[in-house]
Every structure is written in C-alpha cells, then in structure tokens.
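In response to the reviewer comment on reproducibility (Comment 2.3), we provide here a single inverse folding case reported in full, input and output, so that an independent group could reproduce the run without further information from us. The structure tokens appear first.
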C-alpha cells in the first residue's frame, strides 16, 4: 500500500463521524438559530433527541416566531425553546401555537406564548375526549 492510500483510509472514519454529527445534531438548526440570535446548542439538540422530541419542529417554529417579531412576553429569549419543548411533551401542538401567535400578531390582538399554550392544551385535551 502506498502512502496516499493509507492516509485516505485513515481519514474515512473521521469523515464518517463528521457526517454522522452533521446529521444527528442537525447543524442547519444551529445556523438558523444564530440567524435570529437564538441559543441552539448541540447539547440542547441532543437533549431533545433523548427526550424523543423532534428538534426540527421546536427550533423551526421558534425561528418563525422570532423572525416575525412576535411579542412572546418571556423573561429571556432563551426560555423559548424549553417552553415549546415542554408544551410538546405535555401533548400540545407546537405548530398550532405558532400559527395562533402569528395570526394574533397580524390582527394586532394581545396573546402571549403561555396563554396560547394553555388554550392549545385545553383544545388537545378536549379532542382526546
């Protein structure tokens, strides 16, 4: 075996590992979070995966809300991801909450994130009955 072949064979596992990380961590979600100054860390994404929460659903809806400039009435912008994740784990529909907040903003109505989550959980509970 020549030197070039040996070097390529040694690099293959590292390249596979990097591709696996890019897929598992959904690096595009981290970059979308950086766009809107949302703290999306690799540990947060791994935590979502371990709790069996779809990171795409949570992060993309959070980015939609922040890009639209919705007044979420949260103490910190960092509380947005855990709040949406907790809502999802409680059985709520994150996409429906996002749509409701965007619609309320378009109609100049006052609706904050916690109220929208509470209404959605009530509707989800009634649908299951």
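Designed residues, in position order:
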């Amino acid at each position: 075996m020549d030197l070039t072949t040996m070097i390529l064979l040694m690099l293959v596992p590292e390249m596979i590992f990097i591709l696996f990380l890019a897929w598992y961590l959904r690096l595009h979600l981290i970059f979308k979070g950086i766009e809107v100054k949302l703290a999306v860390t690799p540990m947060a994404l791994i935590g979502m995966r371990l709790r069996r929460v779809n990171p795409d659903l949570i992060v993309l809806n959070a980015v939609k809300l922040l890009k639209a400039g919705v007044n979420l009435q949260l103490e910190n912008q960092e509380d947005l991801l855990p709040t949406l994740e907790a809502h999802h784990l409680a059985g709520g529909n994150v996409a429906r909450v996002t749509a409701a907040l965007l619609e309320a903003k378009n109609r100049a109505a006052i609706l904050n994130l916690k109220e929208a989550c509470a209404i959605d959980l009530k509707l989800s509970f009634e649908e299951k009955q």
